[in-house]
Amino acid sequence: MGKNFANCNFQEQSLGDYVLRSKLGEGSLSTVWRAEHRTTGEVVALKQIPLAKLTRHLRNCLECAGLKVLKQNHIVHRDLKPENILLSCSDCNPILKIADFGLSRILLPHESAEMVCGSPLYMAPEILQFQRYDEKVDMWSVGAILFELLNGYPPFHGRYVQFIRLVSG
C-alpha cells in the first residue's frame, strides 16, 4: 500500500484559512499538523491547542503562586517576561516559577515608583511614559506574556518595537 493511503481514516478538517492534511506530532499541550493554505497552497506546520487545555494553562499562569507571593509581600518585579517565567513539574503538574529579581523592589500600598526599568516589550505604558507606577505594572507584563503565548509574537512588534527601544534608551 502506498504512503498516500497510510491514513485512510483521516477526515479532512480545517483550521481558519488552512486545511489540515496530516498529523506531524502530538505533545501534552498541543498537536502539530501539516496544513495547506486554502488560497495560496502554502504548506506549513500548524500547532493546535485545544481550548480546554489552553484555558487551563492560562488560568495556571494567572493564578501562579509566585504572583501571589509577590503581591502578599508588596514586591514589584518590574521585569516579568517569558525568559523570567520558569516551568517545572511536580508529579506531572506544571508549576510556574518567577526568576530574576534584580530589578524588583518592595512597594508598600499607596507608594509608587518612577525608575524606568524592565524589558520594553513587556513594560506597562506608565513606565514607558516616565510616569509614577505601582504593583499593577506586573499584571500588564503578565498580560503581554499571555498575548505572546496565544499569538506567537509579543503585543507590540515591528516599527513600534523600534520606537520603544528608542524611547527607553
TrEMBL record:
The answer on whether this UniProt entry bears the keyword Kinase reads yes
The superkingdom of the source organism is Eukaryota
| Name of this protein | Serine/threonine-protein kinase ATG1t
Please list the coiled coil stretches: none
What GO MF terms are annotated? ATP binding; protein serine/threonine kinase activity
Give Gene Ontology CC terms: autophagosome; cytosol; membrane; phagophore assembly site
Q: From which source organism is this entry?
A: Sesamum radiatum
Pfam families given in the database record: Pkinase
SUPFAM superfamilies this protein is in?
Answer: Protein kinase-like (PK-like)
Would you kindly state one Gene Ontology biological process term found in this protein's UniProt entry?
regulation of autophagy
Q: What is the organism lineage in this UniProt record?
A: Eukaryota, Viridiplantae, Streptophyta, Embryophyta, Tracheophyta
Identify the residues that the record assigns to the Protein kinase domain, covering every copy: 1-169
Claim: Kinase is one of the keywords in the record: yes
Sorted keywords for this record are:
Kinase, Transferase
